[in-house]
Amino acid sequence: MKRLKKIAQKRIIDPALNARIQRALVANDIPEAARLAEQALVRGAADPMLLNLAAWRREEAGDYLRAHELLSRALAISPGDALIMGAIGAVFRKQSLFDKALAMLDQAIAIQPSHAATWLERGYTLDGLRLTQQAKHSYERALSLDGRLAPAWAKLADVAAKDGDVARGMSLAERALALDPHEPTAQCALATMEIEARDGQAAETRLNALLDRAVPEEVRVRALTLLGDALDRQDRTVEAFASYNRAQANFRIVHSKNLAPRADRPSHRTFIENIAAQVRSASAMPTPPVGAMEIEGAAAIHVFLLGYPRSGTTLLENVLASAPGVAALEERETLADTDEILVRNDGSMPALDAIAPDLLQRLRTSYWRRVRTMAGDVSNKTFVDMNPFNGIKLPVIARLFPQARILIMRRDPRDVILSCYRINFTPSTAAWAFSELEEAARHYDALMQLTELCRERLPLAFHDVRYDRLVTDFETTVRETAAFIGIEWTEAFHAFNRTAQTRGVRTASATQVRRGLYDGRGQWRRYADQLAPILPILAPWVERLGFDQ
Question: Which one, out of 19, 376, 488, 544, has a CA that is 20 to 30 A from the CA of 165?
Answer without folding.
Answer: 376
